Amino acid sequence: MQFTDSHCHLDDKAFKEYLPALLTQCAELDIKRIIVPSIAPDNFTQVLSLAKRHHDNPIKIYPCLGIHPWFLKGLDDSHLDQLSKIVVASRNNIIAIGEIGLDGAIAKNAENHGQTPEDNWHHQKHFFDFQLNLAKEQNLPVIVHHRQSHDKIMPFLKRYKLNRAGIIHGFSGSYQQAIGYIDLGFKLGVGSTITYSRAKKTINAIKRLPLECLVLETDAPSMPISREVMGQEVLTVNLDNEQVENGLTVNSPANLAVNSPVNIIKIFEVLATIRPEKPDDIAIQLERNVDQLFFS
Ligand SMILES: [Zn+2]
Questions:
Q1: What is the pLDDT of residue 251?
Q2: What gap in Å lies between CA 94 and CA 115, rounded to an integer?
Q3: Quick check: helix, strand or coil at residue 212?
C-alpha cells in the first residue's frame, strides 16, 4: 500500500527541526507524496523552495499557491497581483491553487478586528473569486477551505465550473452537501474529523459516498487526530463540534507536532473501518483519485 497526504503544511515551523527525520519516517510508512498548500504571500516562496530542496527525496513534495481566508488581514489587490505573477512563473512546478476558500467563523468574529461581518465577507469573497478565476485561467484544480460556509462556497463553484475541479479540504458536512460538490467534479479531503466519533454526520457521509471521490489528508500541524484513536499522545484541543471543522490555528504552539503526515496511516485505518471495501482496495483507489485529480 502507498499513501498520499493531499494536504499538509509541511513548511510550517512546527516541522522545521525534524523535517529530514519526518520524511524518513514517511518513507518507511510508504507515504510517498505530500501536497503542500501555501496560506499567504509570506510563505509562497517557502512552499516552492521546500519542494525544490527535496527534489531528490523519495518522498515527493508538491506545492500549491493560494491565499487562505484566515490570513487576509491587511491584504489587498496588490497581493492578488503578486499571487498571479508567481503562479504564472511557477506554473510547471505547482499542482493547484490553494489553499483558498470562505470561512464563516472568521466573518462572524470580524468585529473583534474592527471590521463588520459584511465587509469581511466582501473581502473574503473578493479573494476567493479572484483565485477561482486564476485557477480557471491556468487550468489548475483548487484546494478549498470551508467552515460554516457550504452555502456560500457552492454558488461560486457552480459559476466557475472548473474543468479540473479540486478538493474540498477537511470535508465536514452532510451526505447531501458532499454530493453537491461531487456533482461538480470535486473530491473530498478525508482527515481527522472522522476520528472523532461525535462527528456522526460526516462519518455517515464518508461511509456512503463513492470511494472514487475521496482523498486522504492530515492538514498537519493543524487538525489533530482524536484522543480516542491516538490515546494519550494527543494534547487537549479545541475542536468544538463537527460544524467547527478547521477550528485550530495553523501556528498555534498548542498544536506543535501533535499532528504530522505520518498520521495519514491512522486516518486510513479509521476510514477502512467505516468503508465496506477491503483495505487494500481502498488504498489503491485513493491513490488513483490523487493521480486522476493532479497527475493525469
Ligand atoms: Zn490547510
A1: 37
A2: 34
A3: helix
Residue 231 pLDDT class (50, 70, 90 cuts)? low
Domain count, the chain: 1
Q: What is the DSSP string of 82-146?
A: HHHHHHHHTTTT---EEEEEEEHHHHHTGGGGT--HHHHHHHHHHHHHHHHHHHHHHT--EEEEE
Distance 291 CA to ligand 1 centre (A): 20
Q: Is residue 9 part of a domain?
A: yes
Compute, in angstroms, the gap from residue 279 CA to the centroid of ligand 1: 26
**14-23, 137-146, 190-199, 248-257 — which one is most confidently predicted on average?**
137-146
For residue 244, being part of any structural domain is answered with: no
Contact 40, 80 (CB under 8 A): no
How far is 219 from 36, CA to CA, in rounded Å?
Answer: 9
**Where is average pLDDT lowest: 16-20, 67-71, 178-182?**
16-20
CA of 144 to the centre of ligand 1 (A): 9
- Domain holding 23, by residue range, is 3-234+250-294
Q: Is residue 219 part of a domain?
A: yes
At residue 228, the pLDDT reads: 76
Within a domain: residue 133?
yes
pLDDT in tens, 279-293: 999 999 999 999 999
What pTM, to 2 d.p., does this model score? Answer: 0.90
What is the reported pLDDT for 237? Answer: 37
Q: What is the DSSP letter of 263?
A: G
Which residues pair with residue 147 across a beta bridge?
103
Task: Give the CATH number for residue 12.
Answer: 3.20.20.140
How many angstroms separate the CA atoms of 32 and 122, rounded? Answer: 39
Centre of ligand 1 to C-alpha 69, Å, is 11
- How big is the chain by its Cα radius of gyration, in Å? 18
CA of 253 to the centre of ligand 1 (A): 16
188-208 average pLDDT score: 94
